[in-house]
Amino acid sequence: MDLKTLYSEILNEHNIRPSHKGTMDEPSLVLRGVNPSCGDDIYLQLKVDENGKICEGSFSGSGCAISQASVDMMLDDIIGRTKEEALHLADSFMKMIQGKELDEKELEDLDEAASLQNISHMPARVKCAVLGWHTMQEMLKGGSTAASAHADHCQPDGACQ
Fold first, then answer.
1. Which of 7, 10, 117, 143 has a CA that sits 20 to 30 A from residue 69's CA?
2. CA atoms within 13 Å, Cβ hemisphere of 99
3. How many Cα atoms occupy the beta-carbon half-sphere of 161 within 13 Å?
4. Alpha helical stretches, state H, the chain
């Protein structure tokens, strides 16, 4: 099996059978992420303990296969990590998706999310891949809580922040 086929299978698996899709009771943080240019719309929920460790995570909403799979992979990566570690992973993901080179450790830390590396060659799809990651960054940096924030990550012209 070639690498492109494997990456496609990973994306399809996370889209068709996401591990973290749903809602949770009493999340610590909730933030809505919207991509107005293509209609991706998610609610990201995290439970963070008193030590800043992400104990649980889920998402709900709708969007394309890439946005849904990417946020599911992201949750696989950040659950069990501290906020700082999660933000570091997000920085690595953003570098990768912008086409910048990552070292072997950074790619390994991204785990299955590294399978989205070739999205950097598809500018129209970058905004889909980064939606969950941007939402998580805003959430952890700003401490947004239920229904108190809304994040528009991409402009109507397709440019992502």
1. 143
2. 5
3. 16
4. 3-16, 65-78, 83-97, 104-110, 123-142
Tell me the per-residue pLDDT of 84-137, one tens digit each, with 9 for 90 and over.
999 999 999 999 999 999 999 999 999 999 999 988 888 889 999 999 999 999
Give the DSSP H/E element, type plus range, for residue 43.
strand 40-48
- Tokens 């501290």 belong to residue: 82
Token representation of residue 132: 């969950």
Burial code (b: 16+ CB inside 10 Å, e: under 16) for 114-135 equals: bbbbebbeeeebbbbbbbbbbb
Retrieve residue 12's tokens. 């399809």
DSSP 152: E
